[in-house]
Amino acid sequence: MILKALYDYYHRCGDLAPIGMEFKEIAFVIVIDETGKFLRLEDCRIDNKNAKKFLVVKGARTSAPKPYLFWDNVEYVLNYTPAHKEILSDENNTKLINSIKKSKIKHDLFVAQCEKIAQKYSSNKAFKAVTLFYKNDGIDKLKDSDLWEEIEKKPSVNLSFRINGSMQIVAEDELLRGLSFDNGEYDSPKAICLITGNSSQFVNTTTATPIIGSQAVAKLVAFQVNSGYDSYGKSKGSNATISTEAESCYTTALNRLLQKNSLNKFTIGNRTFVFWASSNSETSKQAESCFYNFLTNVKSDDPNRRIHEVRQVFNAIYSGKLTSNDNDKFYILGLAPNSARIAVIYWKETTIKDFAEKILKHFEDMEINDTRKERKPYYGVYNMISTIALQGKESNVSPNLIEAIIKSIIEGTPYPYSLFSACLRRIKAETDKDIFVSRASIIKAYLNRKISNHKKIEKMLDRSNDNIGYLCGRLFATMVKIQEEANNISTIRERYMNSASTTPAAVFANLLNLSIHHEEKLVPGRKVQLEKLKSEIVEKISGDGFPAHLDINDQARFFVGYYHQRQDFFTKKEDKDSNE
């Protein structure tokens, strides 16, 4: 299912590398003439992290040494590793000696392959020139180049060759495209491809699709020999036959999704998630773009507008304003490094309309009254994480929690308890601040999804809500407001909020007495208004009085009640009427 979806994505894109080819970053090009004479090194780096991409023949490599076609890393092309430099001061270091030996093996394989191809295409002057480069001690001359120090600093980069005066590198020669997937060394029999269902030649090993934290040769589909995965005398690709064409398609598609600056990817710790739509329609493209904006902290002059656009697009998809077929799918694939392979940790396949419904449900559950003048967004995943994190830093939050939040949104399931408890901890730790809208919305969303047998928490102040925690929160907010207007301070919140939200009976009698003294300082009309509000709330409380203790859910309702009542003080009457 996963491979088929990736295979279809390759054909959907239409602008990916041709089958059997791939775009590869090559940092330096060795310029030679037709006699193999070294002329110069060309720097193809764009910056410290990126280099120009060239269309080359795709190669499949396992842990065993195996060169690519006229392009590879510094070890293969130039027989150089940092060990060559380090051993000068430590000649008897066994580890360095073994590293140099391995480098020599890789290099010899690369040179031998170049000679083999040059013999096969004897009329090709470029192939022959590369072999002559090595025969004429071209590597020694190259090391005298001014750019050699740059290669020594980063010997993991890729190199290739170019004949002076030519517009393309040798690795781009069209003759190379005629070689088989396994560089002409493996000619498999035909079998039924598990992706396409067609009979064709299948691959023995698959192309690397590395992710963050994995080895460079890590693959989505890998085969082990003599490890319990062989059957009926078959080994490697014979156990699960994938045609060369299908393999090239799905690996090219996955590498596109995983590439740097991909807008179809997000990472959490060492876990990588990619997402894509099955259709090439404008609706699908907007769904992909908006999901990326929803998940990531994209810098913007108006971040609230960006989140608002996300909601508008998904609402248009769900309502039918942006049309989509029932067969239009949306896929989310979660990957994690696992030794030399890649582990699939999450897979979601749904229709675009159902996916839009889940995102809109999140917006609905998180929506709460907000009277701030500068209404910064609080619906996005990044905003949710930062509001519960110590010092607001995403790095202080466990990746497992972030992953759980995203999955709950995608699946439409209750939000994780760890999100809820972390939110309560931050509120209780920062009583010197009023309750943030983002924290109140998280509590509202968690309780409404998790607990179905209680009254649903509304977006705005709910005067009919008689939950004791909610009422205590409203009452506490009222008394804080009375003190603020009387003395222009709010010491009640800082001193008593935590105890009022956990053990109301221990503090509310004293708080009520204090509020009476504060009311005496108010102007008569305002005094009557706040006294009336306080009486209305107290009348809803049970005759048994304030409870000795509130459980964790009612503590949360206390904070929402407090927030709702505080927001109501700053909400204009016409706004209240329009929302009732």
Protein architecture, described:
The longest helix is centred in the first third of the chain and has 27 residues, at 94-120. The protein has 21 helices and 12 strands. It has 580 residues and is α+β, with helices and mostly antiparallel strands. The strands form 4 sheets. It has a 4-stranded mixed sheet. Strands 9-10-11-12 form a 4-stranded antiparallel sheet. Strands 1-4 form a two-stranded antiparallel ribbon. Helix 16 packs parallel to helix 18 (504-519), helix 16 packs across helix 20 and helix 17 runs antiparallel to helix 18.
Please provide a brief summary of the model.
This protein is an alpha+beta fold.
Layout of strands and helices, then pairs:
Layout: H1 2-13, E1 21-25, E2 28-32, E3 38-43, E4 53-57, E5 71-73, H2 74-78, H3 82-86, H4 94-120, H5 125-135, H6 138-142, H7 148-153, E6 158-163, E7 190-192, E8 199-201, H8 244-258, E9 265-268, E10 271-277, H9 282-295, H10 303-319, E11 329-338, E12 341-351, H11 352-366, H12 381-388, H13 399-411, H14 417-429, H15 437-450, H16 468-487, H17 491-502, H18 504-519, H19 524-540, H20 552-569, H21 573-579
Parallel strand pairs: 2-6
Antiparallel strand pairs: 1-4, 2-3, 5-6, 7-8, 9-10, 10-11, 11-12
Helix pairs in contact: 1-8, 4-5, 9-10, 10-11, 11-15, 14-15, 15-20, 16-17, 16-18, 16-19, 16-20, 17-18
